[in-house]
Structure formats: structure tokens, C-alpha cells
Amino acid sequence: MAQLRRRRLWQLQMLVALGFGTSLTLRLGTGQPINAPLMYLVMGGFCAASAWALHRRHVDLSAGFLLAGLTGALLGMVLLGEGLRDEAVAALPGVLVIAALLGNRRQLATLAAMMVLTVLLLGLAHVEGWYLSPVVAAQPTSAVEIGVILAVTAFGASLLAGDLASEVLLTQRARAEAERLAHYDPLTGLPNRRLALDRFEHAARGASRTGEKVALLLLDLDRFKDINDALGHAFGDRLLAAVAQQLPPVLRGSDTVARLGGDEFLVVLEGLPRSSDAGEVAAKLLDALAQLRCLGDTDIKIDGSVGIAIWPDDGGDFDTLHQKADIAMYRAKEAGRQCCRYFDAEMDRSVGDHLKLVAGLRHALARGELQLHYQPQFDLRSGRLIGAEALLRWESPTLGRVSPARFVPVAEQSGQIVEIGAWVLQEACR
């Protein structure tokens, strides 16, 4: 807004200088007498002062110089021309409108008072015979009418300028709120994923010049779903907000903690000399969580698991590092929770194997790759055959013979065990 105001003021300065310069040139070119050479000189001085103040970024002072010069020039034309019947009188309300849009309320009131007072004094001079226009004699009521017009114009322009300023302020606030919502989580007030991405890219650019490292730490609260189910989502939201207050004091001012959604928090650590520094910060974050013992009247115990991925060792972009930090975080949960794990290549291979098993198992039943082997059961006392145990086997054309110890847990995690169990029961009975 300030930049727009300076640009408009500069444009008005150019327009005023061009207008008075054109007027002076026409008078000199046509041989007309210059009735007020001092007026042009003073106007030029005010324009120069206004330009100087604008150059020094004194916007209010610049506007004051320009408006004072305009008002003085127009009133000078009125006095030296046709008095209250002069065409310059029609331009005075326009100056008040410009003052309302460019200047402040004090400048507007000052200009309006000066104009009304000058017009009334000029009208009184006409009535008393102190001053008579060389061209047209003004009616005594003209001064009052013009004064009323100027006063109404000043009042209306002030109201409109105030309304416009209010609308601009509301627009700026709405824009700032939209900007905040675009970059910050509304529940916790922490940066969101978009801002975390920007911070990471900035940190990576800086680290590429210094040879340092950047770490992504993915923190997930343990058993948060159980808390939500037991105490309600409103309590869960309060807990997330409390966690968001616990984490930032552990970090440096240059680091960023963001909420990605749910109970996941992402920490961007920049300028790390060693990868091991990230593990020390992760331990501090988990200690900060452990210090959160109560929320209101409710005693709680909240733990977390942290996965760590290092730039550029584990990847060169945000999405890759986020994915690998996520893998490491789940390994931390499998290791007993309330701990942290660095990503390593073995995790990547393990995840790849897991995905292959899930994808192959999804079609194994339809393709007839699953088989049942029957192991007999005997009564040891009598030696009599009393039954058989059905053992599930998987012969994959791509993975080969897959051990049940590998694919049965995968089937349970992916939910495919229900369909497979129904097939096993039906096949064994058949």
C-alpha cells in the first residue's frame, strides 16, 4: 500500500509539473502577459520540495508540499483572474479529493479551512469594495455558496477516504490471514508441510555451500488413536496443541518444527556438522514429550517415535527424505517405541521386499498360487491316525517358494488374511 501511494504521488508530481509547464510555455509562446510570475516560481518550488521529500521517503511531507503548492496556485489564479467566477475555483474541490486520498486528515482539514477562509474573505472584499475583479463582479452570495461546496466536498472526501482505507485494511488483513492459513497449521499454529518444504529447500541451498548436513526428523505420537478414542477428539486436539508448545524450545532458532497432519510432526534441522547431531536432538524431543504429564485435570503419558533421514546422504529432495524418515520412524515403533532410528539401506531393501510381497499376495489367490499341504496327526498311545493339519504354502512364479513366516504376517497387516482364511477353510473341507 505504501509503495502504491508513493507511485501515485510521483505521478501527480509529474502531472502538475507538466500542467504548469505547459501553461507557462503557452503564455510565453503566444505573447500573453504573465500576470503572476511569482506564482509559477512558488509552484515550481513546492513541486521540487515535494519531489525531494518523496525521494527521502517522507510521503506525508511530500503530499503536504504538493497539495499546498496546488492550493496556493489555484487561489492565486482566483485572486489575479476573475475572482470567485474564475475557472480555477472549479478545481479546488478536486484538490480536496486528492488531499483525502493522498494526505492525512490533518492536511485535508487544513487545506479545506484555508480555501473556505480565502473564499469568504474574497467575498467580503467584493461586498465592501476592497477588491473588485477586473472582469466580472461577483454576487455577495457566491462566496458562501462556494464555501459550502468546498466544505461539503472536504467532508464527503474525508468519509470516502476513510471508507477506502478501512476496505484496504480489511483486504490486507484477509490477505495476511490467507497467507497464514496457506503456511501454518490452524490447530497448533506451527508451520505446515508447504512452509516446511520451503525451509528445507532454503537449508539445503545453504548447506550445499558450507558442506554441512540437513536432517528431517519425523515424530509420531505413540498410541495417539487410543487417546482419541478414550478421551475424545476435542481432548486429542488440546493434546496436539500442547505437544506443539513443548517441541520448539528444544530447537535452535534456525530449525523448524511443522505439523504434517494427524499426530505427525516434522522437524527440519539445518547446518549440522555431523549426522549424529540429529540423534541428540531427537532424544531431546522425546524427553520434552515425556515431561508432558498432565493436561487440565487429566493425567497423561505421551511417548513418540522418531525417524531420521539425512540430506544429502539419504536423498536430495524433500519427498524422498520424508519417505525415508517415515520408514525409519516405523522401524522405531517396531523396536519398542519411545526411541529414534536413522534410515539405512537395509530398511529400503526391507520395504521393497515388503511391497513386492503385498503386490504378489494380492493376486496369488486368483492365480491359484496358494496350496494346502496336509500334515497327519497321530495318537501316540494307539498309533491311530486321528486327523490332519492344513498347512498353507505359496509358490510364486516371480518370488519362488515363499515361507509362511514371511507372507502370513504380511497378509495379516494388509487385511488379505480374511479372504485367504476363508479359502483355506473351504479348500480343506472340500
Which key terms come to mind for this protein?
430 residues; three-stranded antiparallel sheet; Alpha-Beta Plaits; 62% helix; alpha+beta; single chain; 14 helices; five-stranded mixed sheet
Description of the structure:
By secondary structure, this protein is of the alpha+beta class. The chain folds into three domains: 2-179, no CATH class; 193-343, Alpha-Beta Plaits (2-Layer Sandwich); 351-429, no CATH class. 62% of the residues lie in helices and 15% in strands. A five-stranded mixed beta sheet has the order 2-3-1-6-7, with helices on both faces. Helix 3 runs parallel beside helix 5, helix 4 packs parallel to helix 6 and helix 5 (105-128) packs antiparallel against helix 6. The chain is rod-shaped and about 145 Å long.
How would you summarize the topology of this molecule?
Layout: H1 2-30, H2 37-55, H3 59-80, H4 92-102, H5 105-128, H6 140-183, H7 193-210, E1 213-221, H8 224-231, H9 233-246, E2 256-261, E3 264-272, H10 276-290, E4 294-295, E5 298-299, E6 304-311, H11 318-334, E7 340-342, H12 345-364, E8 370-378, E9 385-396, E10 400-402, H13 404-414, H14 417-429
Parallel strand pairs: 6-7
Antiparallel strand pairs: 1-3, 1-6, 2-3, 4-5, 8-9, 9-10
Helix pairs in contact: 1-2, 1-3, 2-3, 3-4, 3-5, 4-5, 4-6, 5-6, 8-9, 12-13
Compact description:
With 430 residues, the chain is of the alpha+beta class. It has 14 helices and ten strands.
